[in-house]
Model the fold of this input.
Amino acid sequence: MNKHVISDFQQLPYLRRSMRNIKIIEVKSEIGAGTRGASLGIDAIQIAALDFMSSFFVNFPTEQVETENKLLYEPVQSPYAKRIHGVLTMYERVAKSVADTLRSGLFPLVLAGDHSTAGGTIAGIRMAKPKNRLGVVWIDAHADLHSPYTTPSGNMHGMPLATALAEDNKENQVHNPDEKTIGLWNQLKNIGKISPKIRPEDIVFIALRDFEKEEEYIIKKSNIKVIPVQEVRRKGVENVVRQTLMHLSNCDDIYVSFDVDCLDSSISRGTGTPVSNGLREREAEDMLASFMQNHKICCFEVTEVNPTLDKENLMAEIAFNILQRSVNLLLMN
Done:
């Protein structure tokens, strides 16, 4: 494993100058996932920091967003959008936290359990900057473009980008959700009274490789940019980052969402939906470090670490290495 950890001694000059510029937002929610354990991911990353003798997590102000994980003990009411009423509550809470953080002049560093709450993150950015055009870099094995009309699982972590795009994809409808589910879905799309929140041309998928035909329809229909792992390897990380930023050059702000399942399944066992043929650890680390040096990056999110599926906390250690190097370069920018 590549333990490319920047020591606290090296960090200190930047932390003293800039540590008030970042706020960590902890979202220990896992009601959108199909596998249990993602709510423990943030604690696992913090344990990794301690194992590396890093004071990373005491250097920044932190907010913990209240969760609705108690719903995991209750029967599922909406089979095509499981626990959607709880996800709506999480969207509202996360959106408020992110918006308040940005309005106060801080950079939101979001550590999330499952990826469903990313829709709330996007909503919060737009609420804080309603006139700005937002670009999204989605580093993930999955497209997360499903809706209650198309989902194969009903798990809400497969839907956050669809909510941000206000995309139902009824052209490929396979389910008939009940009226209550449809009403809650429409509320999700309209969080912050901005809908849609992003444009398809302002999304770049990196390492995408596991998606359904319904999602492929949206990608092709909207001509959403996809950079597969093979292209990262062929062109090199720096060229891919440059290409991505060029594609998003008309955007005022850029949000980077990093799902650890973008990594190859040989190293991303500690996540709910690992997929083979993914990024290597160093490729992901170098890529995010490069992105963080761009002044348009307004929010960074790390999600889907699940230590219950892992041995020796390896996934969280990798996530922490990536997180620490990315933040160090963000502070230098």
